[in-house]
Design brief:
This protein starts with a helix and ends with a helix. The chain is built from 18 helices and 2 strands. The protein is mainly α. A two-stranded antiparallel sheet has the order 1-2. About 25% of the residues are buried. The chain is about 65% helix and about 0% strand.
Length: about 400
């Protein structure tokens, strides 16, 4: 029997998982692996697979497992009756679990327990110890108890597993937490197509009670845009920093002005490097007529912006040098044109047959022709410059 056949046979005999794993955390496998020994001393065996023995979880991992299981059971019991479970009790229980874990692995947090950001500091330093099962319950507790601050910390530190992201997105949409949904788009790398669809529909046709949390997204864009303008006007700046400040001020002004609150949220979806055509295409396919019209109008605004401000481009240096992180979330002309193409591919018949789309499409057609003409001119100039450089090298 070949090695592949042995592995296939062994895999077929594995019983499906019906309960939570006994080892829900990342174990330190180095010491147990080094202690493994052959089960049999028969060195003449022709078998390709030789059983070993001596596997033993380290004492530290064993303590963490026990602590994690106890916390899981206690939190699950508390959440069965959420009306009597307070935020204060939840944070105390969570802090106690993380503090115990920090002592067991010898990793301390240098912050007073009474400090407002103490729980956040614990999560940032010890969040990697949270198992999938435990994290699912913590997310549930955050939503039920409306502890949005802790939930933001978990999302920003990318501690939300893909198995929990779907339920989290649906819960946040139901609770109208637009600002946290934007954070999910920014920081969760494993969003599935169904989640992208829900988020896209929510931003294109937001419920009336969703605008209160969308306002905080606008304030963030506005704050960074004004800061960039102030920095660009600072006479004490010079050189690279001044150039980056000027580029960032134009870029953020273009991304902020004339866009509605919900459209500012759409910026994150359109510019996300985690969402390619394979994710956006099925989501765009599921849009209804009013949602398609909203998306076309949003894309039309961007095309008009790039037609008016052709100098706007990527400005990554403004993010890590000047702190303007919003510059990373400004859709490029490539992002916009790609999305226009997806809308045409997925809804061509509807766009042709329904007259309500025709005016918007004619406007887009004119802007795309203008941008294409400008691109051709730029290509011609680039060719001239390249030829002159080549002649200079040969001279």
């Amino acid at each position: 029997m070949t090695l592949l056949e042995l592995i296939t046979e062994a895999t077929a005999k594995i019983d499906p998982l019906t309960s939570h794993s006994d080892y829900p955390i990342i174990l330190d496998g180095e010491k147990p692996l080094l202690s493994l020994k052959p089960e049999s001393k028969d060195t003449n065996s022709s078998s390709l697979i030789k059983p070993v023995e001596g596997w033993q979880v380290s004492q530290t991992d064993s303590l963490l497992l026990t602590s994690s299981q106890k916390f899981y059971k206690k939190l699950k019991r508390k959440l069965k009756n959420p009306t009597t479970f307070t935020n204060y009790e939840f944070i105390a229980l969570f802090n106690s679990f993380l503090e115990k874990a920090s002592r067991e692995i010898g990793l301390s947090v240098d912050m007073d327990q009474a400090h407002f950001g103490y729980t956040r500091a614990l999560v940032e330093k010890l969040g990697f110890l949270l198992s999938r099962n435990v994290m699912g319950l913590i997310l549930e507790a955050c939503v039920v108890l409306e502890n949005w601050g802790l939930l933001e910390t978990l999302i920003v530190n990318q501690l939300v597993d893909h198995s929990a992201s779907s339920k989290l997105v649906f819960d946040l949409v139901e609770r109208r937490k637009s600002d946290l949904i934007c954070l999910c788009v920014k920081h969760l790398p494993d969003l599935q197509s169904s989640e992208v669809t829900v988020i896209l529909k929510y931003f294109l046709d937001p419920p009336s009670d969703a605008y209160s949390t969308m306002g905080s997204v606008r304030k963030e864009w506005e704050s960074q845009a004004l800061s960039a303008v102030d920095m660009a006007s600072n006479k004490s700046l010079s050189g690279l920093k001044l150039r980056l400040a000027k580029e960032a001020s134009i870029q953020l002004m273009v991304a902020h002005d004339e866009f509605t609150d919900s459209e500012l949220c759409l910026h994150y979806l359109l510019s996300s490097s985690n969402l390619d055509e394979n994710f956006l295409s099925p989501s765009i396919n599921k849009l209804n007529g009013s949602e398609i019209l909203s998306l076309i109008r949003y894309l039309s605004k961007w095309l008009k912006k790039y037609e008016t401000f052709p100098q706007v481009g990527l400005c990554p240096g403004a993010s890590f040098m000047l702190g303007f992180s919003a510059c990373n979330w400004v859709p490029t002309i490539e992002d916009v044109v790609k999305c226009v193409g997806l809308v045409l591919d997925e809804h061509f018949s509807s766009l042709v047959l329904n007259s309500e789309f025709h005016e918007e499409l004619r406007s887009i057609e004119g802007m795309i022709k203008s941008l294409a003409l400008e691109a051709q001119l730029c290509c011609s100039l680039a060719n001239v410059v390249e030829n002159l450089r080549n002649e200079g090298r040969c001279a």
